Amino acid sequence: QVQLVESGGGLVQAGGSLRLSCAASGRTFSSSAMGWFRQAPGKERELVATINWIGNSRIYADSVKGRFTISRDNAKNTMYLQMNSLKPEDTAVYYCNTPRATISWGQGTQVTVSS
User: Are the C-beta atoms of 12 and 112 separated by less than 8 Å?
Assistant: First the structure.
């Protein structure tokens, strides 16, 4: 069974950058589309970026387009989210999963952006 472990979150000032990582166990990662989700306090979890299995097609939510970049390294079973020009409204717990959330959720990684 695939397990997901997110890391790389932290506290950053507005305008700063962070790079999140998602390490996946199991053989199916390299053949699966993947995505990054986030959940802010009191809000529903939302999908902010997706990447196809080979890594040459990406889709972003309007709220992060032009600031976030999703990528993956199938040889390392790892996916990344480079977040630049961070805003306080990006504060949330960030999770990785398939776009349809077919894998059990990991613990996520907290991102806090101060103004």
Answer: yes
Per residue, what are the HEC states of the chain? CCCEEEECCEEEECCCCEEEEEEECCCCHHHCCEEEEEECCCCCCEEEEEECCCCCCEEECCCCCCCEEEEEEHHHCEEEEEECCCCHHHCEEEEEECCCCCCCCCCCEEEEEEC
Q: What is the pLDDT of residues 8-64, one digit of tens each?
A: 999 999 999 999 999 999 778 889 999 999 999 999 999 999 999 999 999 999 999
State the burial class of residue 56 (Cβ atoms within 10 Å of its Cβ: 0-12, 13-18, 19+): exposed
Look-up of token digits 């409204």: 89
CB 51 within 8 A of CB 58: yes
% of the chain exceeding 90 in pLDDT: 93
What amino acid is encoded at 76 in this protein?
K
What span, in angstroms and rounded, lies between the C-alpha atoms of 80 and 24?
11
